[in-house]
Amino acid sequence: MTSSSYVLAGQDSELERLRLQSRVWEPSGQHLLDEIGSGQGLRVLDVGCGAMCWLRLLSKWVGPSGQVVGTDIDDAMLSAADSFVAEQSLRNVALIKDDIFATDLEPASFDLVHGRFQLSLGRPAEQMAAYVRLVRPGGTVVVEDVNPNSWQYVPKAPSLAELINLIRQVFAQLGLGDPSVVQLDMFRDAGIVIDARTEVIALPPGHPYQRLPLQFAKGLHAPLEAIAGADELARLEREAEQELQDPGRWGVTFTLFQTWGRRPS
Ligand SMILES: C[S@@+](CC[C@H](N)C(=O)[O-])C[C@H]1O[C@@H](n2cnc3c(N)ncnc32)[C@H](O)[C@@H]1O
After folding, report:
1. What phi and psi values does residue 71 have, to the nearest 5 degrees?
2. What is the distance, to the nearest Å, from the Cα of residue 201 to the centroid of all Cα atoms in its chain?
3. What pLDDT sits at residue 176?
4. Is 131 in the pocket of ligand 1 (CB under 6 A)?
5. CA of 18 to the centre of ligand 1 (A)
6. Helix or strand run (H / E) with residue 144
7. Count of structural domains within the chain
8. 116 within ligand 1 shell (Cβ under 6 A)
9. Which of 113, 164, 215, 229 has the fewest CB atoms within 10 Å of its CB?
10. What 3-state class would DSSP assign to 96?
11. What CATH number has the domain bearing residue 108?
């Protein structure tokens, strides 16, 4: 997979999805940073930061004497991130257009490098090699990604469940049948001792993040249609909309699998 073949690139719906998703997972990121310890004064990198990701969290974590760099390859994402940074007055955040597979950033110039939901870009070993090159010896690499096994609704929602099943098939076609194994292998192959934790969030009835399967169905329309057929996909989307109207239905997110470790000195 090349960098430009990121499956959800260039869609307005993707920008909205990433904004919402970043807000939902922000407390989980804070939990992980609390475990890592104090970040005051550090220089840190958020790779493929999209519209928001960890920029606000990291800005606070490193404080006024620290520096946060957020990178992305996509101009629309960088522009959305730029608006967010201005709106939130995050004065210690700089945004740079950069391709993680051909990065122009200075090697060993960061105390911490973070990448979330980047596995779908493919080439995980190359991604990890870039993270390790960019972090200083003894610095921390953090990777967060999706483990889909907990993703469900209570009470059960058959059409949403089938959409999730199809989305998982599309990601399996990208070599992400078991993304957490890919994630662990990245660290192991880089010789980094792994720490790990997980986060799952219960979404109350009507929470906008319950719509994630439908947002993916929009973004991944062509590959989903190739698997399910146009009529079946349309039926699932229609019925999933109805299932989301149930005022008593809770959502349970996928598991956020958070892994980190230190670059050997
Ligand atoms: C699934 S999104 C995740 C965004 C963000 N990390 C988050 O968790 O909200 C993947 C992001 O990686 C960016 N991206 C794709 N290819 C890239 C590359 N080669 N280098 C840097 N960023 C890239 C996309 O533009 C997109 O913003």
Report:
1. -120, 155
2. 15
3. 85
4. no
5. 10
6. strand 135-147
7. 1
8. yes
9. 229
10. strand
11. 3.40.50.150
Between the CA of 186 and the centroid of ligand 1 the distance, in Å, is: 18
Distances (CA, A) of 203 to 12, 70, 78, 153, 177: 24, 28, 29, 9, 25
Rounded to the nearest integer, the mean pLDDT of the chain is 94
At 1, the pLDDT band (50, 70, 90 cuts) reads: very low
* Separation of CA 33 and ligand 1 centre (Å): 21
What torsion do the CA atoms of 220, 4, 191, 193 make, to the nearest 10 degrees?
-40
- What DSSP string runs through 213-260? HHHHHHHTHHHHHHHH-HHHHHHHHHHHHHHHT-TT-EEEPPEEEEEE
Q: Which domain holds residue 8?
A: 3-262
Task: Give me the pLDDT at residue 219, please.
Answer: 87
* Candidate of 28, 74, 101 to mutate for ligand 1, largest count of ligand atoms within 8 Å of Cβ: 74
Residue 11's pLDDT band (boundaries 50, 70, 90)? low
Which tokens is 88 given?
């939130």
